[in-house]
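Sanity check

After download, print the first record. It should look like this:
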Amino acid sequence: LAQPRDASLGALAAGWLASRGPRAPRSSGRARAPRGAAPRHAAAARGAGATLNGATISVSQTQTLARADLLAAKPAFDPKHWPGGLEGAKRSHRPSLAYRLCLVAEGRFDAMITLRRAWEWDIAAGALVVREAGGIVTDSGGIEAPFNAPEAAHAGCLAAPPPIHAALLKARGL
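Expected structure tokens:
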């Protein structure tokens, strides 16, 4: 998981490795997982699938929102954002957008939602991992945003397996 501008303390605390960013220790060239934490390294290449510590990963097989475990900050669950409702979905939160994306890619959670602006350097690497693991990644309106565009901020981020992604868009009224 590479985050060129942000070594994301939340991801590191959870044991994820990240390439050195401005906040990472300069002596090692790599941010390290906390002592005693098992290192976790998600990787992907376009058309080559996604791996976690070298083992192939894939998004969850959950088919409905009623059984879905969603990663989102509490404000993202405000009913005003979901005219179709999120009945039965369970909300959890983890720090770091890239970390959340990788948790979706490995199938530990069914979706990741942020309705706030998402900077491409926070989501690009994780978005590739999710896509290569079989998921869909779009902005909060369902549009696949191009990376390296003139505007580096995206209108949120939804990442999920295809049936959950479609259900999220429907629940948003899109």
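If your output differs, re-run the checksum step. Summary of this record's structure: The chain has a mean pLDDT of 82.
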